Amino acid sequence: MTSLILRSLLLFAVVAISSGNGVRYTANWTSIDSRPLPVWYDEAKIGIFVHWGVFSVPGYGQFSEWFWQSWKGAHRADEVEFMKKNYPVGFTYADFAHEFKAQFFDPDEWAEIFEASGAKYVVFTSKHHEGFCNWPSADSWNWNSMDTGPHRDLVGDLAAAVRKRKGLHFGLYHSLYEWFHPLYLKDRASGYKTQEFVFRKALPELVNLVMTYKPELIWSDGDWEAPDTYWNSTEFLAWLYNDSPIKDFVVVNDRWGNGCYCKHGGYYNCADRFTPGSLPNHKWEKCQSIDNRSWGYRRNMKLIELMDLPTIITDMVYVVALGGNYLLNIGPMEDGMISPLFEERLRGMGAWLGVNGEAIYSSKPWRIQGENTTVPVWYTSKNNTVYAILLEWPSNLLFDLAAPKTSEATHVTILDDPSVPLKWVSTAPTGLVVLMPDIMPVSPGQGWVLKLEGVV
């Protein structure tokens, strides 16, 4: 065990570069959590999550990305019966990898869709809990996309395509644990007193991803079974923030060990689909899948199980009004195609942001996050401007806002037609009533934005 720890420490020493004149962080949560969040992340607001791997081949189950665990770990009846009906006796999960060919994967096409969605960052699966690496990992012989299946570097290809798009940041999802890796199972059996999996697999691969692809965001997962001390999380993050080539701009989430989420890390994911009821006191992100049942692609998904565009817009606006980022997930097919249904939703979101993005990007929560005097409204702010985002159109054209306090400089416009000022009257002691346009602007989703200047 001592030799493994020494090898891990040596690994960090070998890849270390000059840390510059900035603050150096020590390997404890008090120090790690004191690092300021790089500004780009809060300003970005919208990201696209991509779950893609060997699990995309069977593409079945309520959580298709958990297919192997559901089939061979939990022995769920649906997955067991699916395999009996469709595959011969003796077929193994590893056999699916040969069908993960990605023959239609065009990273430039993906990047164009992501850019058209209005997203400012992409988080791509480097490795899910099944352990299959979407890059040529030297620590995952024959269970990676170069040796098996596509025979290409999926991470590298997409990173290059995304970075051609101005203003689009590239991040990587990485699962710390692997369901059936022998070294992980051995460590777990020891009560996590041994760390062979960490030093021989998890940490070397994380460092390899950082050094090779220089992701601007690391979305850690698979942390819940073992404590952060097992994963050596604070040691890795201290190296990441002090000496790695991405130390000045990398952003990380909060999944670094059992009990860490919503407590430690750069920003908080907390639970999947985390939706706080009030303004959190720490930067956070909601990850939400268009397919309400799964993160990975399901060939048996139904239209009723997908979020429609108005629901996506409503969800996104709520998250941003409460200071969060919105990470919207898709699961591509095993051949590399993105379902037209997913593409339609992404392009629709982008069309809405093309009109109303001024109220979203680089915005801050206002002193009041929402109200429902006339119709549901969420507020954002930027500098001295307040944005009121309506999720319904007022039926009588009179729109009452109770929270803003007007002044002689108050000016009201709608982002669909910002050149035409809207008439308004103030109410006491605060608030105003706005006369909305006679004709409701055609919204590419749901929601319209009033720009309120000169209010407090």
TrEMBL record:
What taxonomic classification does the UniProt entry list for its organism?
Eukaryota, Metazoa, Chordata, Craniata, Vertebrata
Top EC class per UniProt? Answer: hydrolase
Q: What does this protein do?
A: Alpha-L-fucosidase is responsible for hydrolyzing the alpha-1,6-linked fucose joined to the reducing-end N-acetylglucosamine of the carbohydrate moieties of glycoproteins.
Please give a single GO biological process term from the UniProt record: glycoside catabolic process
- Alpha-L-fucosidase C-terminal domain: residues covered: 369-453
Its EC number(s): 3.2.1.51
Catalysed reaction equations from the record: a neolactoside IV(2)-alpha-Fuc-nLc4Cer(d18:1(4E)) + H2O = a neolactoside nLc4Cer(d18:1(4E)) + L-fucose; a neolactoside IV(2)-alpha-Fuc-nLc4Cer(d18:0) + H2O = a neolactoside nLc4Cer(d18:0) + L-fucose; an alpha-L-fucoside + H2O = L-fucose + an alcohol
Coiled-coil annotation: which residues?
none
Name of the gene encoding the protein in the UniProt record: FUCA1
Q: Which domain of life is it from?
A: Eukaryota
- Please state which protein family the record places this protein in: Belongs to the glycosyl hydrolase 29 family.
Quaternary assembly: Homotetramer.
* This protein's record includes keyword Signal: yes
One Gene Ontology cellular component term attached to this UniProt record is: lysosome
Q: Which residues form the signal peptide?
A: 1-20
A GO MF annotation of the entry reads:
alpha-L-fucosidase activity
The molecule here is called Alpha-L-fucosidase
Entry keyword set: Glycoprotein, Glycosidase, Hydrolase, Lipid metabolism, Lysosome, Signal
Instruction: Site (May be important for catalysis): give the residues.
Output: 287
Cellular compartment(s): Lysosome
Q: Which organism is it from?
A: Salmo trutta
The segment(s) forming the Glycoside hydrolase family 29 N-terminal domain are 23-358
Record bears the keyword Kinase:
no
